[in-house]
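queue> pop job 88
queue> type: inverse folding (structure -> sequence)
queue> payload:
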């Protein structure tokens, strides 16, 4: 049985993000420089970055090894294990519910997509012509899946420790403590609507209201625009934030995040009406 280390010991162990280097030898070499890991089997890296759209275009009869979907499946499991163990060791004072919420944020598609962009992972992707023309290098789903596949490729090539080092350096550093602090303060981690509701209730500001103001795109790829408002004492609606997302819930969460961030930054007083998005544009 492994020893359970203290929170301070765990947090100080290998959670610094590697410095980003540069390379002029092509996107795969440049990526290996950025992640500070050199593959023994370059085909694993190539497979991790190959989207199914390219595999479909190149041949009629496909095998599971022609694209990164199997690696994505494995990478999801490796990511979950590493993050779960790190949280278990780093925050022994937290209950299961808080740890589960932290993990959900750290392995979310949104966070994985952000990390993939910081790694310029899109530049190294191998896409079919259709996805290339449709902006596949910037799509959050494709980027997050490729990042999980990359984790699996590192695991298969070098074992668990280099995969864990990559995860700690790129997915936990700079993000984990922010989420942990929110959890300690009693806010619902990642649930910005609940956090905003608690903020309003504590100050007697009434109920935030969300309304879809616009929709665009085809049915399978819609974008929703949501306005977040508050009902003022005079009966008028005051706009606090406006955000978009591929789902109504995502747009509402982002609007709530923006509003809460603005309120906290300006240290709004209970007796004052919160600043609005209209004020920000003035």
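queue> result:
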């Amino acid at each position: 049985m492994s020893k359970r280390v203290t929170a301070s010991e765990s947090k100080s162990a290998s959670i610094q993000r590697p410095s980003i280097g540069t390379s002029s030898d092509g996107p795969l070499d440049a990526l290996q420089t950025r992640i500070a890991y050199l593959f023994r089997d370059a085909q694993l890296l190539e497979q991790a970055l190959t989207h199914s759209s390219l595999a479909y275009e190149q041949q009629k009869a496909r095998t599971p090894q022609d694209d990164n979907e199997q690696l994505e499946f494995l990478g999801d499991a490796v990511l979950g294990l590493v993050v779960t163990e790190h949280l278990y060791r780093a925050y022994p004072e937290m209950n299961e519910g808080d740890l589960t919420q932290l993990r959900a944020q750290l392995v979310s598609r949104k966070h994985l997509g952000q990390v993939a962009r910081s790694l310029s992972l899109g530049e190294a992707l191998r896409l079919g012509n259709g996805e290339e023309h449709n902006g596949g290098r910037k799509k959050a789903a494709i980027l997050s899946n490729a990042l999980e596949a990359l984790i699996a490729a590192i695991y298969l090539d070098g074992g668990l420790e280099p995969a864990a080092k990559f995860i700690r350096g790129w997915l936990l550093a700079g993000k984990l403590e922010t989420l942990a602090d929110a959890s300690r303060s009693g806010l619902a981690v990642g649930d910005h609507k609940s956090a905003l509701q608690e903020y309003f209730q504590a100050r007697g500001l009434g109920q935030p209201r969300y309304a879809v103001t616009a929709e665009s795109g085809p049915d399978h790829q819609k974008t929703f625009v949501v306005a977040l408002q508050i009902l003022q004492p005079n009966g008028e609606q005051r706009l606090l934030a406006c955000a978009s997302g591929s789902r109504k819930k995502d747009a509402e969460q982002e609007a709530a995040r923006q509003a809460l961030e603005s309120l906290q930054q300006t240290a709004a007083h209970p007796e004052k009406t919160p600043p609005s998005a209209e004020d920000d544009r003035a």
